[in-house]
Amino acid sequence: MPEFFTSLFHQLIHTSALEWTATITGFLCVYLAARQHVLNWPISIISVSIYTFIFVENKLYGDALLQLYFLGTAIYGWFYWNKVSTSDYKPIILLSNQELIRITLLIVFFTVLLGQLLDKFTDTDVPHIDAFCTVTSFVAQYLMTRKILQNWLLWIIVNLCYIPLYIHKDLILTAVLYMAFVIIAWNGYQFWKKAFHKNNENIDA
């Protein structure tokens, strides 16, 4: 165990300034999203732009593609949440069990498809786990932009999967960040669920 922490400390002090910047802005944007704060989107733009470069450099092509998607959804989310804040309040939405089953099947289908493509056409050594994390993150991010409660449950699952993946790629600081993301995602889920029930109580009243 002491050797693990020594190795971890050694890798942390040799982490590039670029990864530090991406990590700090990534933490801030997820924390602000959990608090339903619109500033999470512009900060996210900074983080995902840097991570695009980092992931290409580490042959995580699915994740690199995901960052470009995040960039687009960050711009959309910034516009959408700003529009909501200046007009009617956008309530948090809860998906039905039937909708969740459809989303699960969608994730499975595209994970298999993307995994095969990454395995055949790229030099990545983790095509299938990269595919799963990428597809699940795609879906979770879209659900977040629409303020759907279950986005946080998907983020908990995918962030747990990302931790060993980033350790495998020696992106230790990013792995630590995703450990924090798991906690933030759980807190975000609890915070949004409370807001969802409070809003429904106000409607019923």
TrEMBL record:
Membrane topology classification: Multi-pass membrane protein
Function: Required for nicotinamide riboside transport across the inner membrane.
Subcellular location: Cell membrane
PANTHER family, sorted: NICOTINAMIDE RIBOSIDE TRANSPORTER PNUC
Spans traversing the lipid bilayer: 12-33, 39-57, 64-81, 101-118, 148-165, 171-189
Domain of life: Bacteria
Keywords in alphabetical order: Cell membrane, Membrane, Transmembrane, Transmembrane helix, Transport
UniProt keyword Transmembrane present: yes
Organism of origin: Sphingobacterium suaedae
The family this protein is said to belong to: Belongs to the nicotinamide ribonucleoside (NR) uptake permease (TC 4.B.1) family.
Gene designation per UniProt: pnuC
Protein name per its UniProtKB record: Nicotinamide riboside transporter PnuC
Pfam families given in the database record: NMN_transporter
InterPro entries listed in its UniProt record: NMN_transpt_PnuC (IPR006419)
